[in-house]
């Protein structure tokens, strides 16, 4: 076998090429159908099948936690993953490719929204069935979706704007506390806010307003960073935004009417999976439209060369402030969701560790890319949960992975890639 320049033999290169061609004709609908079959299998027979393999119950996160907790059961967890997930998804996706391509081709003749809703509906059913297996899965899924929204909002500043901001935990805290005060003050009998002002059954209908209120409070707070920061250039934004994060944290710790350092709890549990999923989908859609708009293009021009953008009549300061407030708004919405999923907020949650976590998601996934933010948030969130049995060692493994990504892919795994829904859901052509 003759080795090629990249170290792969000719035979191996041909095999990889055949695999790539084999799956290149599979549309997104087929992958979703395969995933739906896999989660349906697990939903109905997962527990009984796991017990036949010697497992106490169906593995929570694809068997990786079981492999790390009990290495003796590694082969059982691996067999479970292959037979429940890997084989059904790949086989069903490939077998249904032709029919799903025909369906995707027919959907092109209809408005894009119809095709998008079909894909999103399938995705939601998959996530619902998968998370319905346990409360742990449901919690992990909701926190991961919130992380996607938070990462996207920070990527607007650190990626599309080309600045370096450290204030996102502060914006998230403002949104979390503002939305909590809104819901607790209006709909709950709370020791801090007294008797409820409105009946509880109205709460779910007002919850979107609570999230918007949290986002607006975060955007107003962002003015304290944006106005002084964007009068100057260089690293001033990083310094001022880091100071802002500590100011917000200290301010909340000294505000007794929201619990001070003890935190604020008993938020209504209205941030269920449908609400979180719908909010994140809407957020991705709006943010993607923003970065593809004229203002988004102007933001890229400012990032690449601010002096040239100014010479081309772009109001650079207005553009940066608008994008900064827009990013802060969505960070506040993410904070509101977080508070009502956890049903408790504490100022200590929104400190350096939260900043490091969201920065890792942004730079791991990729700058200037909606795809990258989604991949980065999902990867780091799920990886943190999968490595939980390793305890302190997981905080060595995850930074090492980040270091490797920064060495070999300095801009992240999927950077500077446009999120085009039409290309994502279109049928695959024969090759």
Can you offer a commentary on this structure?
The chain is mainly alpha-helical and 431 residues long. It has 2 domains: 11-131, no CATH class; 135-423, ABC transporter involved in vitamin B12 uptake, BtuC, CATH 1.10.3470. The protein has helices at 10-24, 28-52, 64-69, 74-95, 97-107, 112-131, 135-161, 168-187, 203-229, 236-253, 273-292, 294-304, 306-311, 316-342, 352-365, 370-386, 394-408, 421-425; strands spanning 264-265, 344-345. Helix 6 packs across helix 7 (135-161), helix 9 (203-229) crosses helix 10 (236-253) and helix 15 crosses helix 16. The protein is globular and about 60 Å long.
Summarize the structure.
With 431 residues, the protein is mainly α. Helices cover 71% and strands 1% of the residues. It folds into 2 domains: 11-131, no CATH class; 135-423, ABC transporter involved in vitamin B12 uptake, BtuC, CATH 1.10.3470.
Layout of secondary structure:
Blueprint: H1 10-24, H2 28-52, H3 64-69, H4 74-95, H5 97-107, H6 112-131, H7 135-161, H8 168-187, H9 203-229, H10 236-253, E1 264-265, H11 273-292, H12 294-304, H13 306-311, H14 316-342, E2 344-345, H15 352-365, H16 370-386, H17 394-408, H18 421-425
Antiparallel strand pairs: 1-2
Write out key terms for the chains shown.
single chain; 431 residues; mainly alpha; ABC transporter involved in vitamin B12 uptake, BtuC; 2 domains; two-stranded antiparallel ribbon; 18 helices; 2 strands; disordered N terminus
